[in-house]
Amino acid sequence: FLRRFFVNFPSAKQYFSQFKHMEDPLEMERSLQLRKHAQRVMGAVNSVVENLSDPEKVSSILALVGKAHALKHKVEPVYFKKLTGVMLEIIAEEYADDFTPEMHSAWTKLKALIYTHVTAAYKEVGWAQ
């Protein structure tokens, strides 16, 4: 999903010194750093999903992600909306036969939840665009 994200939104690569100059999608796919980052992202998404019944835990997880990306990485928050959109596209493609309207609705709600909490963390730390 990160490969597609960077192909669709090449400006997002500016935040990644180790692969910001990669143009070839196959080179991106082979990048160990890119894979590790994708695993961290999916690990965070998995933690959110596993803790949906605990709003405080979800808020805590996403606050950590948001604050790190605002303060340390200086990533524009709109990229979270774009990234979760790419994730939703890929899930819908990979599970097309099983991707019901209810599943689409659930993933769309998760996408909105992630973006809402992350942007709240940005506001909390005084992010100025």
Automatic annotation (TrEMBL):
The keyword Heme applies. Coiled coil: none annotated. SUPFAM superfamilies: Globin-like. Its EC number is 1.15.1.1. InterPro entries: Globin (IPR000971), Globin-like_sf (IPR009050), Globin/Proto (IPR012292), Globin_lamprey/hagfish (IPR013314). One of its GO terms (molecular function) is oxygen binding. The keyword Metal-binding applies. It catalyses: H2O2 + AH2 = A + 2 H2O; 2 superoxide + 2 H(+) = H2O2 + O2; Fe(III)-heme b-[protein] + nitric oxide + H2O = Fe(II)-heme b-[protein] + nitrite + 2 H(+); Fe(II)-heme b-[protein] + nitric oxide + O2 = Fe(III)-heme b-[protein] + nitrate. It is an enzyme of class 1 (oxidoreductase). Keywords: Heme, Iron, Metal-binding, Oxygen transport, Transport. Residues 1-123 form the Globin domain. Belongs to the globin family. PANTHER family: CYTOGLOBIN (PTHR46783:SF2). This is superoxide dismutase. It comes from Crypturellus undulatus.
